[in-house]
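Re: that backbone. Tokens:
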């Protein structure tokens, strides 16, 4: 069971790191560099600050669900 929680926390840490990079990094730290690129008529840095971080968060939620279901099956702790 300890391996299950270790893998769970590793997954969580990785997904939170990705969320941090997308929301804080792309939306604040590297916004000037990203603003040189346009996406749908909007500057990419602006897009990440307004929309991209939200889309990324929703995608990360789905990735977390898929990963946790796989871990549950691997360690036989299914709720089924």
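Recovered sequence:
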């Amino acid at each position: 069971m300890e391996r299950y929680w270790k893998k769970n926390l590793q997954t969580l840490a990785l997904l939170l790191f990705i969320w941090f990079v997308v929301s804080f990094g792309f939306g604040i730290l590297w916004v000037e560099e990203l603003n040189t690129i346009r996406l749908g008529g909007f500057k990419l840095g602006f897009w990440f600050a307004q929309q991209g971080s939200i889309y990324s968060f929703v995608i990360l939620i789905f990735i977390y669900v898929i990963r946790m279901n796989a871990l549950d099956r691997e360690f036989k702790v299914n709720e089924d």
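The longest helix spans residues 44-74. Helices lie at 2-29, 31-34, 44-74.
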